[in-house]
């Protein structure tokens, strides 16, 4: 999977003032690469992630995933493309409280009507250290376990592109490190192209390349 972002621009209107969030932003991401984008609160990290996922549209520029410009797709085409190719891990877990861990993880495959969703869900939960918690509900899980379930759900369909927004931001440092260890083990095993947006220098240090979002542009940080 390749990601090519060219001349990406996004503005927001606040009263009579137009605020430039992203300004001629460019990025190339190679197949299987894991990168981090650092930035302070309000720097535009979440906006950038929403654009790459197709949840928002830029004012200008192109976002090509495996050569497909998702900005040129219709809303229906974008929804289908996103479901089949992109997964997102949020800072909030967004688990359904009435479903078990296993059932939460199985949701994406069931929506896409893919077979063997249960066996795949059991496998990925086992790889993330939750093989013994399959039938527990979110209220019966710790914060770290809930985030592992959310990660498993995102990885179930083996996405071409995985986007992660502060995946350990709600966890204490020790739990966050444990969750990230499992996370990196799995994405490296399956060679999933991954883009993290974070304020954590520790998380960024584990990635192959690091960029800093400043003044609406990406600057590569030499490691």
> Taking Cα atoms only, what radius of gyration do you get, to the nearest Å?
17 Å
Order of strands in the sheet with most strands: 6-7-8-3-9-10
Please tally the helical runs, counting DSSP H or I stretches of 4 or more residues.
Answer: 7
Mean pLDDT: 91
* Helix-strand topology string: EEEHEEHEHHHEHEHEE
Q: Report the sheet with the most strands, covering strand number, pairing sense and barrel closure.
A: 6 strands, mixed
Secondary-structure-derived class:
alpha/beta
Task: Sum up the overall morphology in one term.
Answer: globular
Q: What assembly state would you assign to the polypeptide chains in this entry?
A: single chain
Question: What is the straight-line distance between the termini?
Answer: 24 Å
Low-confidence stretches: none
Number of strand elements:
10
Beta content comes to 25-35%
Query: What is the helix content?
Result: 25-40%
List keywords for this structure.
223 residues; six-stranded mixed β-sheet; 7 helices; 10 strands; globular
Report on the structure:
It is a single chain. The chain is α/β, with parallel strands linked by helices and 223 residues long. It is built from seven helices and ten strands. Strand 7, helix 6 (173-189) and strand 8 form a beta-alpha-beta unit. It is globular.
SSE order and pairing:
Elements: E1 3-14, E2 17-29, E3 34-38, H1 45-52, E4 60-65, E5 68-69, H2 75-85, E6 86-89, H3 101-111, H4 117-127, H5 143-155, E7 161-165, H6 173-189, E8 193-198, H7 201-205, E9 209-214, E10 217-221
Parallel strand pairs: 3-8, 3-9, 6-7, 7-8
Antiparallel strand pairs: 1-2, 1-4, 4-5, 9-10
Helix pairs in contact: 3-4, 3-5, 5-6
